[in-house]
């Protein structure tokens, strides 16, 4: 099975980082966010990736074209241009990098990958969030239900501290509350190739139109994930994820 990762968006809400790199290449613990997402899929046996590029996509290409060198101990003889590899830590991944346009919407990016995903069920997610979602269980539910598309439903983390007031007194204080309790689309889709046929073109957001239509037709399922999920939208998110990575066990590290 293949996993598609949408890695072409502008990422304007974290422009402090994305003026120089695409959001999936922002580093957490010395590795691009994209690497973390791929490691999560690989932990479930999915190692064939199709990455939809757009904004500053050349940086993603350069990363994978030089992946072997980046993850090796090397000696470079500048006099002879000889390169000696001493030790390497690489990944058993097959990575297809596809330019899907700088301004293309999420649905359009998926549609442009039609020839690369083939005729089999595939996974897909956004390149700007990490989770410990059970990909294997998501795929199993998708097949059991017989849906055309399955999204992973998550409850977003709270952004601010919350207080419960009783007159002038604080009755209860929550430093890091959960979100409002509602489920949202957390990505980590499982899709049938036929879903791509209902996407009109480059200007189509996958989240509006295609998913609305599938829901109305009773062909969109949701896998409820109660565990860890966190987006990287702002510098605050980056700091939080770095703190998690520095901890004894980062919650999304399932490998």
Folded structure, characterized:
This protein has 255 residues and is of the alpha/beta class. The chain has a single domain (2-246), classed as Spore Coat Polysaccharide Biosynthesis Protein SpsA, Chain A, CATH 3.90.550.10. It has nine helices and 16 strands. It has helices at 15-18, 33-42, 57-65, 67-70, 106-112, 114-117, 135-145, 210-216, 235-246; strands at residues 2-7, 27-28, 31-32, 48-53, 72-77, 82-88, 94-99, 122-126, 129-131, 149-154, 162-166, 169-174, 184-185, 189-191, 220-224, 229-231. The strands form five sheets. Strands 1, 4, 7, 8, 10, 13, 14 and 15 form an eight-stranded mixed β-sheet that branches. A two-stranded antiparallel ribbon has the order 2-3. Strand 11 (162-166) and strand 12 (169-174) form a beta hairpin. It is globular. The protein starts with a strand and ends in a 9-residue tail after the last helix. The relative contact order is 0.18. The mean pLDDT is 91.
Question: Rg from C-alpha positions?
Answer: 20 Å
Which architecture per CATH? Answer: Alpha-Beta Complex
Please give the largest β-sheet.
8 strands, mixed
CATH classification class: Alpha Beta
CATH fold topology: Spore Coat Polysaccharide Biosynthesis Protein SpsA, Chain A
| CATH superfamily descriptor | Spore Coat Polysaccharide Biosynthesis Protein SpsA, Chain A
